[in-house]
Design goal:
The longest helix is centred in the middle third of the chain and has 16 residues. This protein is α/β, with parallel strands linked by helices. The chain starts with a helix and ends with a strand. It is built from 12 helices and 9 strands.
Length: 283
């Protein structure tokens, strides 16, 4: 039997040779999952052996990853703002950009004292935004909607795992929604078609295309949402969107439908315009 160190090095080398930029982190994540050890324990292990069954499982995972299947799908889990969630092909993998969107939205919710209102996480996917909001604002009524019944199934599993009370609704945008909300976070598909066609194999081959691509300008869903929003917002409310940088001019025009709000754009970790916040006008 080979040692953990030897098999870990070999796995890392195979991922590096295949061009995976985070080969070291991915190798450790695979071994953590299969061997049930922390990264520190794996790195310090010099003589402990890998069993044949463990080696078989490691090689099975590695083979899938070398075909560019996302590691989060293979391992069945993803981290979002410090908490672990189930993750599989039923929903899009949460991105660091979305973590930042939620962090900024939380700050605005506190600033405008909306903590005890009704919140809607539209296009919830695996439910991570709704669950995070319920953790931070336990007095809020949190709703989560998606047009994909498969995604809603995953979101319900995550809500149960975290013991958070969320009301789930199957809805295309706001068509099956009847309430008004003080907070709407809509992480809808917003990627222009050309950008999606040029995206990484992990995205094009494995993640649900309907949760990403959104027509030539990426506004296939955001445009009708903006028409619907006025009938679903409380007098004092916040709307948060994740967007593509090229969509700012169109959103300035669409913002005229919300005259009681001020549009503010914000940047992601790469300093690209990624978020649109419709803030309640100060009275």
């Amino acid at each position: 039997m080979s040692t953990i160190k030897a098999v870990l090095t070999k796995t890392n080398n195979q991922l590096e040779e295949a061009g995976f930029p985070a080969a070291r982190q991915e190798s450790l994540a695979i071994f953590e999952c299969v061997l049930g050890k922390t990264s520190a324990q794996l790195i310090s292990s010099t003589t402990e052996k890998v069993t044949p069954i463990q080696l078989q499982e490691i090689n099975k995972i590695l083979a899938r990853r070398l075909k560019h299947e996302p590691l989060q799908y293979i391992l069945g889990k993803v981290s979002f703002l410090g908490k672990e969630y189930y993750c599989d092909h039923r929903a899009l993998i949460p991105r660091p950009e979305t973590e930042l969107l939620v962090e900024k939205a939380i700050a605005y919710i506190k600033k405008f004292e909306l903590e005890k209102g009704r919140f809607l996480d539209m296009g919830t996917g695996g439910g991570v935004i709704a669950i995070t909001l319920k953790y931070i604002f336990p007095s809020a009524q949190v709703f989560a909607s998606d047009c994909s019944l498969e995604a809603l199934g995953l979101a319900r599993e995550n809500a149960s795992r975290h013991n958070r009370e969320i009301t789930f609704i199957a809805s295309d945008l706001l068509e099956n929604i009847s309430d008004r909300f003080s907070v709407i976070i809509a992480n809808l598909p917003y990627v222009p078609e050309k950008v999606w066609l040029e995206s990484a194999p992990e995205v094009r081959r494995f993640e649900p295309a309907g949760a990403i691509r959104a027509g030539s300008d990426g506004l296939r869903h955001i445009r009708p949402l903006m028409r619907q929003l006025p009938s679903f917002l409380e007098a004092r409310s916040l709307v948060a969107l994740e967007i593509w940088p090229s969509q700012t001019n169109a959103l300035r025009q669409l913002a005229k439908r919300l005259p009681d709000h001020t549009l503010r754009f914000d940047n992601d970790l790469s300093n690209q315009t990624r978020f649109a916040f419709f803030l309640p006008n100060c009275r």
